[in-house]
Amino acid sequence: MTIAMGLALGLGATAAGALPVIPGASGFGMDTPAGRGGKVIKVTNLNASGPGSLKACIDASGPRVCVFEVSGTIRLNRDLRIEKPYLTIAGQTAPSPGITLRGAPLAVANTHDVLIQHLRIRVGDDANGAGGASPDNRDGLQIIAGKAPVKNVVVDHVSVSWGVDENFQLWHTGVSDITIRNSISSEALHDSIHPKGPHSMGIIVGPDIKRVTLTGNLFAHNNARNPRLKKGSETEFHNNVVYNWGNHALDTEGDANLVGNYFKKGADTRGSCVHERAPSALYMADNIGCGFTDSRSPTVRQSGYKPLAARDAYDYVLTYAGARPADRDSVDQRVVNDVKSGSGRIIGSQRQVGGWPSLAVNTRPLQLPANPNGDDNRDGYTNLEEWLHAYAREVEQGNAGPTIPKAPTDLQVDVLYP
Question: What distance in Å separates the CA atoms of residue 368 and residue 157, rounded to the nearest whole number?
């Protein structure tokens, strides 16, 4: 078995002859070009809108890449919506301690070909800070269709916590070819301000949503929906770690392949790992923690992803998941420590765990590579993309360079960076 580090968990083909937007990675939608070949727009301040803001880059037209010359917290007073295609948000370019979005969801809505990397989204129940974000739909990250289909969306190394509804929401028919990888969904709020009462939901994949890959993620301290797979949905759920669920870890009436996952009970766990409802069809292999019986053959189509063994996935996820694994904020570090030690609880408000960390506002001018949209080494990636890959390596691996510490000893490690 092979890990291609980019960090790219699970080698495999994305589509015939396609170049994965993350080197060596596989998963549905991974062959998106995102903002490749487009203009580079610098985020220079933490304003919710206006010149130099993240919103200004998101709202621009045409292929584009958002890079950050500032770190800190962006306080949102309404949903931040991505509604134009061919976008890369490169959170790895921000100086330490990175970027956190606070108070409202980030939404990919009615568009296609989007790559989001190395961000934190910590919503919370602060009514003043949330502005127009309604409590009954105050998720962390939304991928939603309606007026137009949504496809080819990759979410990589994103930390989402303190959602009032779900942390992650994939919703409406017309959503397809989505990968969420190497991310953290933690501490969705339970007895909070949701009008329907107690919630705390990790992620939902809505009815008839096709070709979804969830891999290398940590789901911790969410009462339910880790994930929830609705009728007619098709999901790969590989190499994830689920810790301290309440009612159920995974709740499904959709079809799914569950391979190489690690389930660990916590203080709030009282329900089963899997609640399966008709007409669900599940394929299960090499899952640890719930006494699963392996199945014969996959239920849904496969992206080409090649899973790790569950025992190796546990170490991988705790080392490499989240927005900035080599530069974690106090929330991600605390949650990872909870999983390791078997501690921590489901919460009703972010105030119970100290609230939002105060992130330093640091600035760093970025020097773009020469000929950014050229391909000097003719490997298919632009000079700009390889520059972004180097920044990703820094926040994922620190100063370790291409040598990955603590990689499972029975795996080959292929370094795909130049």
Answer: 23
For residue 194, the tally of other CB atoms under 10 A from its CB is 21
Q: What DSSP designation does 15 have?
A: S
**Phi/psi of residue 330, nearest 5 degrees:** -65, -25
Evaluate whether 13 touches 403 at the Cβ level (below 8 Å): no
Identify the pLDDT of residue 100. Answer: 99
Q: What's the fold here for domain 2-353? A: Pectate Lyase C-like (2.160.20)
pLDDT digits (tens, 9 = 90+) for 281-319: 999 999 999 888 888 788 888 888 889 999 999 999 999
d(CA 294, CA 301): 18
Q: Which two tokens stand for residue 188?
A: 């969705």
Which residues participate in catalysis according to the annotation?
Answer: 225
Residue ranges, the chain, pLDDT below 50:
1-7, 11-16, 129-130, 400-418
Residues forming a β-bridge with 161: 122, 186
b/e sequence 352-369, b meaning 16+ C-beta within 10 Å:
ebeebbebeeeeeeeeeb
Contact predicate 244/338, CB 8 Å: yes
Q: Where are the domains of the chain?
A: 2-353
Distance CA 360, CA 389 (A): 24
pTM higher than 0.70 for the full model?
yes
Say whether 160 sits in a helix, a strand or coil: strand
Single-letter residue type at 388? L
**pLDDT reported for residue 269:** 97
